[in-house]
Amino acid sequence: MADQRIAKNGNGLKIMIVVMLAVIVALIAVIAFMSRSNNTPDPGRIITDNTPSSDAGATDAPGSTESSQTADNVTPIPPTEVPTAVPTAPAELKLVDYSGKVEHVFTHSLIAFPELAFATEALNNATNVEKVQSTYFVDCITVKEFKKILDALYKDGYMLVNINYVYEKDGSGVPRLKKTFKFPEGKKPLVFSFDDTCYYSNKMGRGMIDKLILIDGKVGTYTKHKDGTVVQGFDEEFVPIIDSFVEEHPDFSFEGAKGMICLTGFDGILGYRTQRVADGDGRTEADRQREIEAVKPVIAALKATGWYFASHSYKHGAMERYSRDNMYDCASKFNSEVIPLIGETKIYVYPYGSWKRSSDGKTCPPAQQVLNDFGFEYFCSVGANWYANTRADLGNVILQDRANLDGTAFVKFQSIFSTYDGTGTPRFPSINFSEFYDEARNISYDDAVAAYKEWRPF
Ligand SMILES: [Zn+2]
Q1: Average pLDDT for 183-196
Q2: pLDDT at 92 (0 to 100)
Q3: Up-side HSE of residue 165: CA atoms within 13 Å toward CB?
Q4: If you measure from the C-alpha of residue 198 to the centroid of ligand 1, how many angstroms do you get, rounded to a whole number?
Q5: What are the tens digits of pLDDT across the range 385-400?
Q6: Domain membership of residue 238 as a residue range
Q7: What's 206's domain CATH number?
Q8: What's residue 384's pLDDT?
Q9: CA of 196 relative to ligand 1 center, distance in Å
Q10: Residue 21 lies in a domain
Q11: Taking the CB of the first residue and of the last residue of the chain, which one, N or C, has fewer CB atoms within 10 A?
Q12: Nearest CA to 329 among 318, 344, 319, 314?
């Protein structure tokens, strides 16, 4: 990308004109976007009558007061601060009927500082197996790896799409994937989701950024290292990296869509401690309110630039272990603490990809029914092979697997990414994990594959 920037600088006047035109188009897009948002009815969360009324969650059940506070209370940032990069698909891309599959991939917050994540004293002295067993190795990718993946996805003709665009309701109100929808000719739709974009307290100083912030009105990152050094910028996390990628490649984003940010609530969101104050956590309600006010403009800027949100539960527990009452408590807390900040979402991303199966293949599990009653329609799990379908046994909701782009995929899933469900058609022909692998993981690629096989034979 750096090379392209240099090349651009050589074009002088031409670029200036293009930039000015882009700013005008962007302003029009922002105005259109804002008026569309304002016209969208926001019914708040609708809880049906079969929601348990007498269990633990009842005291903080989503009441009308909280629901009505949703998006309206989010302070919009002044137009002058709205980033100028609200992209639209270039006009020369002709819309045609698309009836193929919609790929959905995901990763976690990026490893911005690999030396803190992978070159700790403990890991330096660890065995190869121990190195590949570390959470960051398994679940995460570095900034360098992420950029190579983006280039590959773009090269393969993928274009980011908002998940809400790819499904609809049938005549009975049951959600289903659209069989056909309008999409630019020659492009393939891609939903890209990002789990746990919360920057949990226990991960501070371990290789990820501390929080998303606004820098000159654009979403950037903030990290304070142990020695007091502060790093602020646009090159440490997926949000600003995709924002600038789309600025350079507007045909990587359909109607301005970026990624789906999946949030829990128990430790706040986006690096801000917005969760309720608990006994002994050393915070006051005033601290919490300050964090809430601080995150609002960040959320507004994310939404204005095509990012959208999903629930990743409140507590990040594995659903298989949840009773109906526990799930109600969890969903209620998300509904009262996170939804007022991010606005309505119909999308639920199971922590660990864990979901409950129907006991008889027909009846919806009670914990799942709780989520359905809270209004979620589209559920996302984890699986490298493509899968998506409306599930009657889960109460008529969509279930989709997401292919993980993480350390596990790097050492294990090349063949799955290279072929399409055994049909032999390349799915992601330009993805080459062994070439993209970042040696900053502190173990060579070959050693990592061997160690992973020793740990979990495949
Ligand atoms: Zn998660």
Answers
A1: 97
A2: 74
A3: 22
A4: 10
A5: 999 999 999 999 999 9
A6: 41-455
A7: 3.20.20.370
A8: 93
A9: 5
A10: no
A11: C
A12: 314
